[in-house]
Amino acid sequence: MSPSIELLEPKQAWAISAAKPLDEAVWQAWLAKGRAQDKRRKALGIKVLKWTGIVGLLAAAGFSFRLGAASPADDLSKYRGFQFGTDLSTVARQAGVDPSQVKVIHSRPALIQELEWLPQSHGVSSQTEPAKSVVFSFYTGELFRIVVDYDRYETEGMTSDDFVEAVSATYGTATKPAVSAKVAQSYGDPEEILAQWQDPQYRFELLRYSYGPTFKLVGISKKLDAPAQAATLEAKRLDDQEAPQRDAARLASEVGAAKAKLEKARLVNKPKFRP
């Protein structure tokens, strides 16, 4: 049996041949649209990842800033609650010291005063107080320097590293001089700087006396220390310049006092003198 052959009419054949190119064009357009969507999705994903990283870094930085700001180990503006820049009466009240005990170091060109606090005489007997004395220095009434001398017996056996570790627990990471640094004193032996803690406004230094195993901690306000040091140098210059006049006036006063004393004794002894 011979297969049957179906002949398509011209109109049907044209429809089929025209439909094939049309389907191919739609397919290519659909692929192009898909590729464009993929590109947009990838670009959006990269942008999201980038901003997520930025936000994460900002959040971490903000957390670190808050942690650093809140951490007492970074606060160099005070010692045991004594804030640099505080007036003399407030410091005296905090320490329980009579303000009348203040010493005037220089009165011109600027007023520089010192107030000594002896924590061991005010401390609780059940507690060990390593600070033997604390000297507060004031420049025009503001606290600019704190010098803490430690009791050698209360700190006996402690090494330099022990001191640095203890101070670092309060003031943060210390920096140590690469080579041995000495601080010259107006009297006595020089002192060795063991470590420093500082920021743009304040500085603390741990020092060791060269003549024995005794340590001290010195803290300053940089803003106030600079003019205080300048005033101290100027006061010394004025003292040296006026020293001859001052010595002459003192000698004249002593001579006058001696003459007055002799005259008083003469008035008492002359009437009762009998040869």
Brief overview:
The protein is 48% helix and 21% strand. It is of the alpha+beta class.
Could you characterize what this model shows?
An 8-stranded antiparallel beta sheet has the order 3-4-5-6-10-9-8-7. Strands 1-2 form a two-stranded antiparallel sheet. The protein has a domain at 78-230. It is built from 5 helices and 10 strands; from the N terminus they run αββαββαββαββββα. With 275 residues, the protein is α+β, with helices and mostly antiparallel strands.
Protein traits:
alpha+beta, two-stranded antiparallel sheet, 275 residues, elongated
List segments where confidence is low: pLDDT < 50 over at least 5 consecutive residues.
Answer: 1-20, 54-72
- What's the number of extended β-strand segments? 10
Count of alpha and pi helical runs:
5
Strand order of the largest sheet: 3-4-5-6-10-9-8-7
Distance between the termini: 190 Å
Biggest beta sheet attributes = 8 strands, antiparallel
Fraction in beta strands: 15-25%
Order of helices and strands: HEEHEEHEEHEEEEH
Helix-strand category: alpha+beta
**Silhouette:** elongated
Kindly provide the radius of gyration, computed on alpha-carbon positions and rounded to a whole number of angstroms: 43 Å
**Average pLDDT across residues?**
80
Overall helicity: 40-55%
